[in-house]
Design a protein that fits this description.
heterodimer, A: Butyryl-Coa Dehydrogenase, subunit A, domain 1, Butyryl-CoA Dehydrogenase, subunit A, domain 2, 3 domains, 3-stranded mixed sheet, 9 strands, globular, B: Butyryl-Coa Dehydrogenase, subunit A, domain 1, 4-stranded mixed sheet, 4-stranded antiparallel sheet, binds flavin-adenine dinucleotide
Chain lengths: 394, 394
């Protein structure tokens, strides 16, 4: 047993940090925010191409680095630390995982190489109005049309990097189906006719969310990833990968907040002494430390499990990490503002950027209470009889 | 115990209500719900005019003693006014710092000449004030202020810097806690004076500071030889600490009850949102909403109990918890609002950064536990003053 990273994994982490530090760390996110942009394109190019992040988990035969989810954890932690505005989570994690899980070999061979090269990006269009992660609430339809086509119709919201992606992976259901039945994943080119999308104005301005409207968008039947055989369980598997990655991002962000707090507690003097000498501040920071370290253990374990444990354990550990890390990150970021006093309440200080990212992270891939509910069901706790989604057996 | 308002009080309530309704459904209806924390940038000129309307009708200075030109209205009447004011969604007050902090201080500790000079323009709603206490080096540790006021002839010349000064960019005057004589480090509470300084003069530069809400409601204020007549000191020269503390003690809970009406409106908005989006079926959110309701009730009863002690004299022990209670409650309410709204909580009213009212509650409430004595300082005060525990190393 070895609960730690290999030398190569550590080197990857250091390289990512170097690139992000070169770009100015959080200052890069501020530049993107100020310009109203989606990404820090230059930094993404360096990460995607020079370090191979775009294809990190893409198998070598499809042009990727062929690495795994433990590497993703290390990378996401660094991206979280800098609040990096890059499409790694949306394209290289969520979309790539979906294509790997759902796509036929042909489809993988066709879609993955340009993604892995960083030539194009993809986004997973999953949530709809209200952002309820329950798949039963998905109303976007995929209607068969003459000539071997499918018409996609509906509205997606909260699509991470959905306005800038070259390729959208749209979750839609066969007409007349309910619950998790009839759900499939469709590849839609960004320029498809009938497709309209725009960036949503959000409280956390460091991650671009989009609304995507599909008005009878016509795609060939073959754009359904994995054909009829692939349904919700496969999509859910890809989402789990994203949730693990997000948990790691939250660990990185929380650690940075804690670092800011510890540093400030030592330099800020009141009553003739560092505020870090007051037990109120010491206890607060001590609690945050325990929280961050626990979150880290959870995210690392879940990262390992995503790759090496059986699917059932992976699902369970993902739900644990997703709920725990989202809560921890929010609490740590909130306390960071408190420890900084008035300065922590300013736009100029970075604390609010982390706080807002932490807030957004509570809903972008399911809320902590959603994840806890998934666990409760796995634990055999009863559910409302008229719930549409039946609990999975443990 | 008699826990109802008297018939006379209710008649007064009806009068206040009628007056407010006539205006806020008439000529001033565009001001309803404008201004207040997080929204101070809204309709500033119109709200200035509104202050004069309040003044003309005699609503400003209700609680000031008659001897100082006030109405000497009993606390319950003040409570009623605050409650009705909030219930009518009358605009956020621009004059509250002058009316509720400075004026009672002048009424209690100022000379007759000072009362005659400063109170009438406040009562007429003509002069806006700001509070110049905090400095970059003196926040929680207020006695650490270093801004100096030297006597040159019959004029005080003020030099130094204040920070986080709310409304400084709008105010006509500032009450400044500053040093008027050098005193040894061990006697930091001595040698301070409480000085009234006109804001519109060459020696003062005001620079608004952007808050994490995106708006700028507080400022840096630079004093570079700013002038004020020597007789604009409240209390004796060198007694500034006592006067500054007195200012902080005039809050007897009357406005707290009005503030709670505002809180109730926020909670209503959350309940409304929950009914609308189905969050009301989530057992956990239902509990949290009910808990917020309970918290609000308990705060009200606590405030009424404090009021029961009447005016003057030492504040009862239970009053010392009020700030900690409401600020903690309000922060949690903001978090609840976001969790009720779910993913939609992220979407702001308009780009680049116009927030919705509940987002303002969420973000602005982070300051509630920082200003007017942070939560940590509140707990120190409670431990020392309410519980009589030995003081910590401050
Ligand atoms: C929205 C807003 C409006 C404001 N308006 C005004 C205004 O109009 N006029 C004005 O003068 N000021 C104003 N302030 C300033 C406010 O009063 C100060 O921010 C506050 O006193 C804290 O001081 P600080 O920011 O310097 O933080 P610090 O005092 O540096 O505190 C940093 C952290 O250390 C903790 N700490 C400090 N001392 C102790 C201790 N002894 N024991 C335990 N913990 C401690 C604090 O609780 C905090 O968590 C405003 C602040 C805000 C946020």
């Amino acid at each position: 047993m070895r609960f730690g990273f290999t030398e190569e994994q550590d080197e990857l982490r250091r390289s990512v940090r170097r690139v992000l530090d070169d770009a100015g760390g959080v200052a890069a996110a501020r530049r993107v925010m100020l310009a109203g942009g989606n990404h820090d394109t230059a930094t993404w190019q360096r990460l995607a191409r020079d370090l191979g992040l775009a294809g990190l988990v893409v198998p070598e035969r499809h042009g990727g680095a062929g690495l795994g989810w433990v590497e993703v954890i290390a990378v996401m932690e660094e991206l979280g630390r800098a609040l990096a505005c890059v499409p790694f989570l949306s394209s290289s994690v969520l979309s790539t995982a979906a294509i790997l899980a759902a796509g036929s070999d042909d489809q993988q061979q066709q879609i993955l190489p340009p993604l892995a090269r960083g030539d194009v990006t993809a986004a997973l269009a999953w949530l709809e109005i209200g952002g309820d992660p329950d798949p039963a609430t998905i109303t976007t339809t995929a209607r068969p049309a003459p000539g071997g086509h499918v018409l996609l119709d509906g509205k997606k919201r909260f699509v991470i990097d959905g306005a800038s992606a070259d390729l959208l992976l749209v979750v839609a259901r066969a007409p007349g189906t309910t619950g998790t039945d009839g759900l499939g994943l469709y590849e839609v080119p960004g320029g498809a006719s009938g497709l309209r999308r725009h960036r949503l104005p959000t409280m956390d301005a460091t991650r671009a969310l989009a609304e995507v409207v599909l008005a009878d968008v016509r795609v060939p039947e073959t754009s359904r990833l994995g054909g009829d055989a692939t349904g919700w369980p496969t999509i859910a598997r890809a989402l789990e990968r994203g949730q693990v990655a997000l948990a790691a991002e939250q660990v990185g962000a929380a650690q940075r907040c804690l670092d800011l707090g510890i540093e400030y507690a030592q330099v800020r003097h009141q009553f003739g002494r560092p505020i870090g000498s007051f037990q109120a501040i010491q206890h607060s920071l001590a609690e945050l430390f325990v929280m961050v370290e626990s979150a880290r253990s959870a995210a690392y374990y879940a990262g390992w499990a995503a790759e090496h444990a059986d699917p059932d354990e992976a699902t369970e550990t993902t739900a644990c990490a997703a709920a725990f890390c989202a809560d921890a990150c929010f609490h740590v970021a909130a306390e960071t503002i408190q420890v900084h006093g008035g300065i922590g309440f300013t736009w100029e200080h970075d604390a609010h950027l982390y706080f807002k990212r932490a807030r957004a992270g509570r809903t972008v891939l399911g809320s902590p209470s959603f994840h806890r509910e998934q666990l409760a069901r796995r634990l055999g706790l009863g559910v409302d009889p008229d719930e549409t989604t039946a609990p999975e057996a443990v | 115990m008699q826990l109802r308002f008297s018939a006379e009080d209710e008649a007064f309530r009806a009068e206040v209500r009628r007056w407010l309704d006539e205006r806020l459904h008439g000529d001033y209806r565009h001001l309803r719900g404008r201004g207040g924390p997080g929204r101070e940038h809204e309709m500033v000129e119109e709200r200035r005019a509104w202050e004069r309307v309040l003044g003309e009708a005699g609503w400003i200075g209700l609680g000031w003693p008659a001897a100082a030109g006030g109405k000497g209205a009993p606390l319950l009447r003040q409570v009623i006014f605050h409650e009705e004011y909030a219930r009518a969604r009358a605009p956020g007050r621009l004059g509250h710092i002058g009316e509720y902090l400075l004026a009672p201080t002048i009424a209690a500790l100022g000379t007759r000449a000072q009362q005659e000079k400063f109170l009438p323009p406040i009562a007429r709603g003509e002069q806006l004030w700001c509070q110049g206490y905090s400095e970059p080096g003196a926040g929680s540790d207020l006695a650490g202020v270093t801004t100096r006021a030297e006597l040159v002839g019959h004029t005080r010349r003020v030099t130094g810097q204040k920070i986080w000064t709310s409304h400084a960019h709008l105010a006509d005057w500032c009450f400044v806690l500053c040093r008027t004589s050098a005193s040894p480090a061990a006697k930091r509470h001595e040698g301070l004076s409480y000085l009234l300084v006109p804001m519109r003069q060459d020696g003062i530069t005001v620079r608004p500071i952007r808050q994490l809400t995106g708006t700028a409601e507080f400022c840096e204020v630079f004093f570079d030889g700013a002038r004020t007549p020597e007789d604009h000191v409240i209390g004796a020269v060198g007694q500034g600490w006592k006067v500054a503390m007195a200012t902080l003690s005039f809050e007897r809970g009357a406005s707290t009850l009005g503030q709670q009406i505002g809180f109730a409106a926020e909670l209503d908005a959350i309940i409304h949102a929950a009914r609308h989006n189905g969050a009301d079926r989530d057992p956990q959110l239902r509990q949290r909403i009910a808990d917020a309701w309970i918290g609000l009730r308990v705060m009200r009863w606590n405030a009424l109990r404090v009021l029961g002690h009447g005016e003057g004299g030492e504040l009862p022990r239970e009053a010392l918890g009020s700030k900690l209670s409401w600020s903690t409650w309000h922060r949690r309410l903001g978090e609840l609002a976001m969790d009720v709204l779910g993913a939609e909580a992220e979407i702001i009213a308009a780009a680049p950064y116009a927030l919705t009212p509940l987002q303002e509650t969420f973000l602005f409430s982070r300051a509630d536990t920082i200003y007017a004595g942070s939560s940590e300082i509140q707990k120190n005060i409670i431990a020392a003053r309410a519980l009589g525990l030995p003081r910590g190393p401050t």
